[in-house]
Specification:
This protein is α/β, with parallel strands linked by helices. It is built from 13 helices and 11 strands. The active site is at residue 208. InterPro entries: AB_hydrolase_3, AB_hydrolase_fold, GDXG_lipolytic_enzyme, Lipase_GDXG_put_SER_AS.
């Protein structure tokens, strides 16, 4: 841990010249984003962007990502392990749902049903920012957490680290873990430290890939309710109703894993997330991470998350979903910045709205990916976080009012442009789906050549 901290300090120091150059360019009014982005945000984006390179191996990046921070302050955290169900019904149902929504040529690695690690997290009353977590059992922490709860609401938040991660656990491992965790809320296993939570008191939430995962989980539930006559699933010896959550709330959701929509390149100057290094017209190749025990996989594939032929499936790229499959879904909140994933969230919101879903959509001019989590104290983030929280509370009380409108906030929050969700975006739904499927097909061709070369190498060795 000490060596990791030292490495981070060294990485910060070598970036001081980059920050200085950015500041000088701003003072000389040479910045391409100064009309929409504050100097503080531009410096932060430049700094974060400099870390997102292909210099480190996948395993090294995972090491940094999975490092726990010290738990203290205004929160209760109670660790819980959701036990593996004795039945295989969850996996069998998920596979049926994937195939039902597919086009017939998709392939994927069959995941294992397993115990899922999770955390109960809640606000801790009477604490300061440095108050340490008491040395008591997780069961006692959970009881203390529930004593401090004021609203009967559970946010089912998908964040990296707890569910099975790629590349070693590709699609649909993450959705399987999420489905097991959700069913465990609806119907806990015997001996669980918590009681069953009604679906109408649960809100799915996530940012970036976690937001995309939640949308994939919701689409899985909608599909299972369509193809299973009883709308139940066998779980820990009980037939559990596949009830939908009260709502789903996401920021900067990743809804097109092919990264084929226009904002992927057009909004690069506002974002710290780098655009793809390739454009159509070339042979698609995997990102050139230094090889290690995680990447490349055996047999090789071109994408970390899924086989190439899965990348336009509604469970992996919800923005590519065909008309009508979100019908009957719960209220949905989507917030995006002027970022690479702007079009992912915007077209997802429009698609759900056209399927009859009550959608709240907010777009923040000049803001980067997951800005509310990156810089939570700036006015735009405060506005986003309050809207996000209000939606969650309104969802469990059945009072979400979207009215089919999208809110476009200017960079200073001094002007709000209200538009119909039907009118946002310049692409039609068919054009969005066509672009994503073209991105998938490009990867299929590249993966075919990659695996052909690998097989030839195996024969020669």
């Amino acid at each position: 841990m000490a060596s990791l901290n030292l490495t981070l300090i060294q990485q910060y120091l070598v970036r001081i010249p980059l920050v200085l150059v950015t500041a000088i360019r701003r003072l000389l009014q040479l910045s391409p984003v100064q009309d929409r982005v504050s100097v503080q945000m531009e410096l932060l984006v430049t700094f974060v962007r400099s870390f997102l390179t292909l210099d480190d191996s996948v395993s090294k990046m995972a090491e940094v990502r999975l490092t726990d921070s010290t738990i203290k302050g205004y929160m209760w955290i109670s660790n819980v392990t959701v036990p593996k169900p004795a039945e295989d019904d969850v996996l069998e149902a998920l596979v049926k749902a994937i195939r039902h929504r597919g086009e017939g040529g998709e392939t994927f690695d069959m995941p294992d049903v397993r115990a899922v690690e999770a955390e109960w997290t809640g606000y801790r009353k009477g604490a300061s920012e440095d108050t340490p977590i008491p040395d008591i059992s997780d069961a006692d922490k959970y009881e203390r957490l529930m004593e401090d709860v004021d609203d009967d609401m559970t946010i089912f938040y998908a964040h990296g680290g707890a569910y099975q991660l790629c590349p070693q656990h590709p699609f649909p491992a993450g959705i399987l873990d999420a489905l097991v965790a959700y069913l465990s809320l609806l119907s806990p296993a015997e001996g669980a430290l918590y009681e069953a939570v009604p679906a109408k008191k649960i809100v799915f939430a996530g940012d970036s890939a976690g937001g995309g995962l939640c949308l994939g989980l919701l689409q899985t539930l909608l599909t299972l309710r369509e193809i299973i006559p009883s709308k139940t699933i066998r779980f820990h010896g009980k037939d559990v109703p596949l009830d939908l959550p009260a709502g789903i709330a996401t920021t900067s959701p990743w809804c097109d894993i092919t990264r084929s929509l226009p904002s992927t390149f057009e909004n690069a100057k506002y974002d710290y997330v780098p655009p793809p290094p390739q454009k159509p017209g070339t042979i698609f190749t995997p990102l050139p991470f230094p090889p290690d025990h995680l990447w490349p996989t055996v047999p090789p594939r071109v994408d970390l998350y899924a086989n190439a032929n899965m990348m336009a499936h509604p469970f992996t790229s919800p923005a590519a979903s065909p008309k009508g499959i979100w019908k009957g879904g719960p209220p949905m909140y989507i917030a995006v910045g002027e970022e690479l994933l702007h079009d992912d969230g915007m077209y997802m919101a429009r698609k759900a709205h056209r399927d009859g879903v009550n959608v709240v959509f907010e777009r923040y001019e000049g803001m980067p990916h997951c800005f509310a989590l990156l810089a939570p104290n700036i006015p735009q983030s405060q506005r986003c976080l309050k809207g996000w929280a209000k939606f969650c509370v309104d969802a469990v009380h059945d009072r979400v009012k979207g009215y089919g409108e999208a809110q476009f906030f200017n960079h200073s929050l001094t002007k709000t442009d209200i538009r119909s969700l039907d009118d946002i975006g310049t692409l039609t739904d068919d054009e969005v789906e066509k672009l994503i499927k073209a991105g998938r097909d490009w990867r299929i061709d590249g993966e075919h050549l990659l695996q052909k070369a690998w097989k030839e190498q195996e024969l020669d060795s």
